[in-house]
Specification:
The complex is a heterodimer of chains A (459) and B (422).
Chain A lengths: L4 E8 L3 H12 L4 E5 L5 H6 L1 H21 L15 H25 L3 E4 L2 E5 L2 E4 L2 E10 L3 E3 L11 E2 L1 H4 L8 E5 L3 H12 L3 E6 L10 H14 L2 E4 L2 E6 L2 E5 L5 E5 L2 E4 L3 E3 L13 E2 L2 E2 L12 E3 L10 H15 L13 E3 L4 E6 L2 H6 L4 E7 L4 H5 L6 E7 L5 E8 L6 H9 L4 H5 L10 H10 L7
Parallel strand pairs in A: 1-2, 1-6, 2-3, 6-19, 8-15, 9-10, 9-15, 10-11
Antiparallel strand pairs in A: 4-5, 5-6, 7-16, 12-13, 13-14, 17-18, 20-21, 21-24, 22-23, 23-24
Helix pairs in contact in A: 1-8, 3-4, 3-6
Chain B lengths: L1 E6 L9 E7 L6 E2 L4 E6 L4 E5 L4 E6 L6 E3 L3 E7 L7 H11 L20 H4 L17 H10 L17 H13 L21 H16 L2 E9 L1 H18 L5 H12 L7 E4 L4 E4 L5 E3 L1 E3 L2 E3 L2 E2 L7 H16 L13 E5 L18 E15 L2 E15 L5 H16 L8
Parallel strand pairs in B: 12-16, 16-17
Antiparallel strand pairs in B: 1-8, 2-4, 2-7, 3-6, 4-5, 6-8, 9-18, 10-11, 12-15, 13-14, 17-18
The chains are: A alpha/beta (459), B alpha+beta (422).
């Protein structure tokens, strides 16, 4: 055994939660060691957010060109395009490389010691990495999450998880996506645009069951237009000889022939294989239980990000990581955001920030709900994407905005305006009274607020 | 012109963070060498930070009450010559400070705050929102409130929809210090509340008390002691030597009794490290004497009580108590005790349940002396009686040992000559 290392803060996991905590700790002068077994950047940078957006961009560009080659009203005439998916993947890998190298450089700049290897917990202040023992005052757990597997669909061969789907060597002729949540739909739509025949099997009665029906309607229509086949209220029973066995709502069995099956039925906290059991922490279901300071049930042991449960979003982990570093430095902090935005990069995109109409109602708030369609927005027309709308939820008594939702092309960028308005405590009048640039999609944000006040201008 | 940066010094004993207690200077002040810039506090003591240079303060690294990491920037001072930082490393600090443009402006940077808006500053009744109702405030205001230890729930918001603005927070902070007294009618119903941030000494005391009660298995043992003979001896010694050697209180006798009794009870003059699972028994008897100061409870230490005479102990107790009360006790004088003695003097009450000064395993509490009728050999006589209320860490001190230790002290105090017989 080599000599024991001593540090103030030891972080297990170099994903968005862990590396941000490390950078902030470095800025605050806290001696910090970060342990990562795979590549820095975690799921997000390597096999999640970033590569999926790269693949979605490739698919979108390819489909646009195909669309143009079929005779377009825009007056552009091109030949039928071809796709070299290996090159696409190389391009995507280049982006991932640049970002993960960037993370490594940032950690170095802030004097964080990175140890590559798999951490094994000994106790609340001791962690082994291989034959290296590390002693710390504060232990931050940021091991993220893993894809949920289905016992009847073990990953291997034609059955793939999102990880394999993000590094294809060829585009399958037929793909069945198991799971109609955001991961399944983002990838399913991308594969469809890349040329695969795509079907989606979902056990519930509609796609994106985590969001309300009004909001997901434009996505459902888009799937129809793209030719993605939906098997709602269907459940998977097995895979045999190149066909997926599915039970229909009436109890009958279907055999769906396919070349590949993508299992995307959610993610679960990564609590196995690093001796977390040794700490015997209080749990919240499958996740580690934390309070509003990300403290676990053990003193000076902290947990952030997917490991601490829903919502499993990189930006939540980052904010938690930053906060924990500041708490350890002695500052007084708590995790109390007004909202954590959630975005689906489907086509069209979907954004939810703050309370939906149903959630506001459940919270006992009397609210005005108002939406403004992109069909009445000039910029949306010039982008050939008139589907979707912006929706605002505000209290009836004082017009305080409690939530924003939007669906439409490019609306992910509106999440910034939504988040800011909620954090700053904006009222409908504040948004209505802010000049929004013309012509932009953002005008629909202002118009939604105006409409809630009873005087939309362009409707 | 250069910039001299002073970092939070490492005060030793592995302390990683230090609380900034008070600034003695502000941005724009001229300071001279050795002028005290700030007081900072560790677990153990208040420490002055003097200026090593002559120059002008250009930025402060924290707010009073803030716990700062050792090595973080405490203060930046503009000095003649090169300073001690490279320009590039410092740019961030300098930007923040926005120094006055040229040297011929002699006046220090005046904070030109607009006069507080009377509307906001007017005395506001504290508002209590429901516990689950989220106070409306921007992230910056929320952060400021956390830093200042204020519950936003209690702050009146003057913004649209009751939004709490920076000015509201400032007004709330100010009113804590300037609230008018209740007025003429002594029976008027009062609904005011006062928020006192738990910072500095109070935070340390709170942490230590909480830690002690959470970790140790306290048990208390009370015995009454006939101190008639002891008090007679004390009065006699004061009459005889008071003028030349100083007056004796009961404390030095108690210290002496503890020193003598501990010879037979080494397990009680000990420190228990419950993380390492080691008990350290100590030959030296360093008696912590709990002392009330303006900022709260402090425990200065009479070192090597076993090697001090009665008057030597008395003198040392007086010196340490004065140092602690005036905030001048050094860190060494406030640490390293092996057992603690606590007394509320005339307010000693009948019984108390002292909290251990971890990692020690015993604390001896002194209650009030009262004259009471006692039965001695079938006769009712008036005796001076005093209770000793002591607590022990039952994890490592057995009840029998603790009781025998207190009985030994009782024997020594009731037969005061035995205190000095070897």
């Amino acid at each position: 055994m080599t000599q024991t290392l001593h540090t103030t803060l030891l972080i297990i996991g170099g994903g968005p939660g862990g590396y941000v905590a490390a950078i902030r700790a470095g800025q605050l002068g806290i001696p910090t060691i970060l342990v990562e077994g795979q590549a820095l950047g975690g799921t997000c940078l390597n096999i999640g957010c970033i590569p999926s957006k790269a693949l979605i961009h490739v698919a979108e560009q390819f489909q646009q060109t195909v669309h143009l080659s079929q005779g377009s009203a825009l007056g552009i005439d091109v030949d039928v395009p071809t796709l070299d998916i290996r090159k696409s993947v190389e391009w995507k890998d280049g982006i991932v490389d640049r970002l993960t190298t960037g993370v490594a450089a940032l950690l170095k700049k802030h004097k964080v010691q990175v140890i590559h290897g798999w951490a094994k917990i000994v106790d609340g202040k001791t962690v082994d990495v291989g034959d290296q023992s590390i002693q710390c005052e504060h232990l931050l757990l940021a091991t993220g999450s893993k894809s949920v597997n289905l016992p009847m669909l073990p990953i291997g061969g034609p059955i793939i998880s999102s990880t394999e789907a993000l590094a294809p060597t060829r585009v399958p002729k037929r793909l069945i996506v198991v799971g109609g949540g955001y991961i399944g739909l983002e990838l399913g739509i991308a594969y469809r645009k890349l040329g695969a025949e795509v079907s989606v099997v979902e056990a519930q009665d509609r796609i994106l069951p985590a969001y309300d029906a009004e909001l997901t309607q434009p996505v459902a229509e888009s799937l129809k237009q793209l030719g993605v086949k939906l098997y709602l209220k269907h459940s998977v029973t097995g895979f045999e000889g190149g066909s997926l066995q599915v039970r229909d709502p009436e109890g009958g069995t279907l055999a769906l022939d396919t070349d590949q099956v993508l299992v995307a039925v959610g993610r679960k906290p990564n609590t196995q294989g690093w001796n977390l059991e040794a700490l015997d922490l209080a749990m919240n279901g499958a996740a580690i239980k934390i309070d509003n300071r990300c403290q676990t049930s053990m003193r000076n042991v902290w947990a952030i990000g997917d490991l601490s449960g829903e919502p499993m979003l990189a930006h939540r982990a980052m904010a938690q990581g930053e906060m924990v570093a500041e708490l350890i430095s002695g500052k007084s902090r708590e995790f109390n955001p007004a909202a954590i935005p959630a975005v689906c990069f489907t086509d069209p995109e979907l954004v939810v920030v703050g309370k939906t109409p149903d959630e506001a109602k459940a919270a006992g708030l009397d609210c005005i709900v108002s939406s403004f369609p992109f069909a009445a927005n000039g910029r949306a027309m010039t982008l050939e994407s008139k589907t979707g709308f912006v929706r605002v939820v505000a209290r009836r008594d004082n017009h305080l905005i409690v939530g924003w939702q939007a669906v439409g092309a490019g609306v992910s960028e509106l999440s910034t305006a939504f988040g800011l308005s909620l954090e700053m405590g904006a009222r409908l009048e504040d948004v209505a009274g802010t000049i929004h640039a013309h012509p932009t999609l953002g005008e629909a944000v202002q118009e939604a607020a105006l409409r809630a006040l009873g005087h939309a201008l362009h409707l | 012109m250069g910039t001299h940066v002073i970092k939070m010094p490492d005060i030793g004993e592995g302390i990683a963070e230090v609380e900034l207690s008070v600034w003695h200077v502000k941005v724009g002040d001229m300071v001279v060498e050795d002028q005290v810039l700030a007081d900072v506090m560790t677990d153990k003591a208040m420490v002055d930070i003097p200026s090593p240079v002559h120059g002008k303060v250009i930025s402060l690294g924290g707010e009073p009450g803030e716990v700062m990491a050792v090595g973080s920037i405490l203060i930046s001072i503009e000095v003649e010559g090169a300073g001690n930082t490279k320009e590039s490393a410092l740019s961030a600090v300098v930007e923040q400070a926005a120094p006055a443009p040229k040297a011929d402006i002699k006046a220090p940077v005046v904070e030109s705050k607009p006069a507080a808006k009377p509307l906001v500053a007017a005395a506001q009744a504290p508002v209590a929102r429901d516990a689950d109702e989220r106070p409306l405030a921007s992230p910056a205001v929320r952060k400021h409130a956390l830093d200042a230890g204020i519950q936003l729930r209690l702050v009146q918001g003057s913004g649209p929809a009751g939004r709490i603005l920076h000015d509201d927070l400032e007004a709330y902070l100010q009113q804590g210090t300037t609230r008018a007294s209740a007025g003429a009618n002594p029976y008027a119903e009062r609904n005011d509340e006062e928020q006192i941030p738990v910072i500095g000494m109070r935070r340390k005391i709170a942490q230590r008390m909480q830690d002690a009660t959470r970790r140790a298995a306290h048990f208390s043992y009370v015995e009454e002691i006939d101190v008639t003979a002891l008090d007679d001896l004390r009065v006699h010694l004061n009459e005889k030597h008071g003028a030349s050697r100083g007056k004796l209180t009961l404390l030095p006798f108690l210290v002496r009794a503890m020193v003598v009794a501990l010879r037979d009870f080494p397990q009680i003059n000990a420190r228990y490290d419950d993380e390492a699972q080691v008990i350290t028994r100590l030959g030296a008897v360093h008696v912590g004497v709990a002392t009330q100061s303006d900022v709260g409870l402090m425990v200065p230490v009479v070192r090597h009580a076993e090697a001090r005479s009665l008057w030597g102990t008395a003198e040392e107790i007086t010196r340490l108590a004065t140092a602690a009360r005036t905030g001048k006790a050094s860190r060494d004088e406030l640490s390293g005790s092996t057992i603690t003695l606590t007394s509320l003097g005339a307010l000693g009450g009948i019984v108390s349940t002292p909290v251990l000064n971890l990692p020690e395993v015993a604390i001896v509490g002194v209650n009030r002396i009262v004259e009471r009728p006692m039965v001695i050999k079938g006769q009712i006589v008036i005796r001076k009686m005093m209770n000793l209320s002591s607590s022990f860490d039952h994890r490592v001190v057995d009840g029998m040992d603790a009781a025998q230790f207190i009985q030994a002290i009782r024997g020594l105090l009731e037969q005061p000559a035995s205190l000095f017989l070897e």
